[in-house]
Amino acid sequence: MENISGALIHGHYLKGDLNQHGKIVAEYIWIDGTGLNVRSKARTLPEAVTEVSEIPDWNYDGSSTEQAPTQDSEVNLKPVAIFPDPFRGGDNILVLCTTYRWADENKTELRPANTNFRHFSEPIFNAAADEHVWFGIEQEYTLFECTNAFTKWPLGWPKGGYPPAQGPYYCSVGATT
Predict the structure, then answer these.
(1) 84 shares a domain with 15
(2) For the chain, where are the E strands, in sequence order?
(3) What is the rounded distance in angstroms from the CA atom of residue 127 to the CA atom of residue 54?
(4) pLDDT truncated to tens, each residue of the chain (177 aa)?
(5) Which residues pair with 40 in a beta bridge?
(6) Which domain, by its residues, includes 164?
(7) 115 with 155, same domain?
(8) From 154's CA, which of 113, 137, 144, 167 has a CA 20 to 30 Å away?
(9) 132 in a domain, yes or no?
(10) pTM, entire model
């Protein structure tokens, strides 16, 4: 298919000159009941927004996302952050959300859904709002020694055996042979 700017090609909208008549698409995004998968659904808003407080709460069927039983499946989405949508462009936005379920049959009180861990961490982050948070990432690699197409062994390990306790090579660079 021809790649035409602003067109729907293979089920995906390509950034372009689509006239949205002042409206925007807000893509609500959340983590489902597995704690691993990301879900989303799009909503058209009447105009561009600049603050998360301008975005309405929404809901979805949590029985399909492992977050609620079928007989009481409503899960509520509460926006917590917005970012420009790099896929749709324009004033369209990505909306990161937390999830809540009704705590009572009268639907007067919400409780965090099973993967809403932000609810528990938010008071901690708010208490340290003036601090600058740093995050670190640990990566571990294993280098293999290849003596031929069939023999591969971790570099530095004794041939046919196992190394001693990790002391000499924990958080290390290189290996000794």
Answers:
(1) yes
(2) 8-9, 12-13, 24-31, 38-45, 58-61, 74-84, 93-102, 110-112, 144-146, 152-154
(3) 25
(4) 344 445 555 555 555 567 899 999 999 999 988 888 899 999 999 999 999 999 999 999 988 888 888 888 889 999 999 999 999 999 999 999 999 999 988 889 999 999 899 999 999 989 998 998 787 888 777 788 888 888 788 877 787 787 777 666 666 665 554
(5) 29
(6) 139-177
(7) no
(8) 137
(9) no
(10) 0.66
